[in-house]
Amino acid sequence: MAARLKSRCAGLLEVSQEVDRECGPNVSFLHRPVKDFLSMPDTQRLLKRWAPQDFDVPNCLLKACILSLRTATANVNDGDFGPIYYSAQKALTIAHRARNSSHGLNNQLVDALDETVTGYWNLIPISNKDQHWADWRARRKPRKERRDFLIEAIAHGLVEYVAAKLLENDQQIVWKTGRPYLEYALRRNHDIAGQLEMTIVLLGGGANPNKMYDGHTFWQYILEQMSEVEEKPGSIFLRIGPPHFSSGCPLYEPWISALKMLIEAGAKPNQLCLYQTEYKYHDNLMSTYNLCAFTPLHMFSSLGLFPNVELQAALRSRGAVALWEVREYWVNTNNSERGNTNKKEFLSEMNSKLQKLVKSTNKKRSSDVNRGNLLDDVGSKDSSKHLLAKETTRCAA
Fold first, then answer.
1. Alpha-carbon distance 357 to 325, whole Å?
2. Cα–Cα distance between 33 and 17 in angstroms, integer?
3. Of all residues in the chain, what percent are helix, strand and coil, respectively (each to 5)?
4. Which of 183, 204, 179, 205 is nearest to 195 (CA)?
5. For 330, how many CA atoms within 13 A lie in the half-sphere containing its CB?
6. Count of CB atoms within 10 A of residue 363's CB?
7. Which of 21, 127, 281, 368 has its CB 3.0 to 4.6 Å from that of 287, i.e. a possible disulfide?
8. With contact defined as beta carbons under 8 Å apart, do 239 and 298 qualify?
9. DSSP E strands: which ranges in 43-180?
């Protein structure tokens, strides 16, 4: 390999003396100026002009990663699987780049990656063979979720691959236990447009925004995360979790579309959400915190954090009501159980208020509809009498 690199790359690339125990020799630039030279715009233009039109860099790199994994001379056991796992993660990152390239992602290469890593995984002497290799990092911890390869594809933004797999098995989302697939669509720092596309694909595949996991639904999870506002106006932060918004700033268009899609997919219009502020310690014994309960309609109303007319209309058309209440609690610093009790009591009280508000609002709407129908009937009768009188006068004349 060293001789081939030297002849093909004129010595600009070399085989490093450091050899990876799992994946063999490393290839690197001869020195830093070589990398800087190849990164120059003029050099990049020359390379693109000289390269064949069908030359697909990201898919070639992905193929090289798979070949590197297949030729790895690993004595795989539970302790040695780490390098294989992290090599697969790097390959998935390259797959995301391929997905955004002009040639697109070759889905067969993604399947080949999964099959290759699964081959190593099956050599590991473990008792629980029903786990997928994607679950390796967390399998020693007691968890409610089980990771599979579709989760990895979703988390890395491989939209077309996920869509193809859901077409092959349209019940996969329905059968999924544990953390819903929708949550993984927003857990990596990919572009907003890609996350929106993934949300469309998952909702089209039968994802339910009201599915419960770990005490909350995905719809509730998004709204509660949005309530944790940042102090930097006009910005959206995409970090490990869902989007973090700043207080009072307008929602960016992709997120308006994403939230509307969730509403249209059946997200509960009157989902009660809860936000708890940080503890403020007044002395060694006592501290205070606030609990805030709110509904989606309040969040997107003129009095809420993110006023938006489109989302208000979508929620109102589904019978949404606006509710918001905040309450301060004093607790003994050493009595953490009291804080949990306060939260349960507050939630129970707010749920009761919400049910009464929904009931009275529905009754009022029903009354308004009936009154409107009655007025229409009266208007129709008056109009008929007027036409009859007019016709009678005309005939008599």
1. 13
2. 19
3. 55, 10, 35
4. 183
5. 5
6. 10
7. 281
8. no
9. none
Residues 184/156, Cβ–Cβ less than 8 Å: no
- Answer for the pair 230, 237: CB distance below 8 angstroms, yes or no: yes
Helices 159-168 and 192-204 cross at an angle (nearest 10°) of: 10
Residue type, 185: A
Q: Is 217 helix (H, G, I), strand (E, B) or coil?
A: strand
Contacts of 160 (CB under 8 A, 6+ apart): 99, 104, 105, 107
Backbone angles phi, psi at 332, to 5 degrees: -75, 130
> pLDDT tens digits, the chain, 397 residues: what are they?
677 777 777 777 777 766 555 455 677 777 778 888 888 889 888 888 887 877 888 899 899 889 888 887 655 655 577 888 888 999 999 999 888 887 889 999 999 999 999 888 888 776 456 788 888 876 655 555 678 899 999 988 899 999 999 888 877 777 777 788 888 886 655 566 777 788 888 888 888 899 888 888 889 888 887 776 543 333 333 333 344 444 445 556 667 888 888 999 899 999 999 887 766 666 666 777 778 889 999 988 888 878 889 999 999 999 999 998 888 777 666 655 556 667 788 888 899 999 999 998 888 877 766 665 554 554 555 554 454 455 455 545 4
**What φ, ψ does residue 13 adopt, rounded to 5°?**
-110, 150
DSSP character for 273? E
The gap from C-alpha 168 to its chain's centroid, in whole angstroms, comes to 22
Using CB atoms within 10 A of its CB, is residue 80 exposed (0-12), middle (13-18) or buried (19+)? middle
Q: Which of 391, 208, 149 is nearest to 199 (CA)?
A: 208
Q: Is 354 in contact with 270 (CB distance < 8 Å)?
A: yes
User: How many residues belong to the chain?
Assistant: 397
Encoded tokens for 81: 């699987």
Choose among 225, 156, 160, 165: nearest CA to 184: 156
pTM of the predicted model over 0.85: no
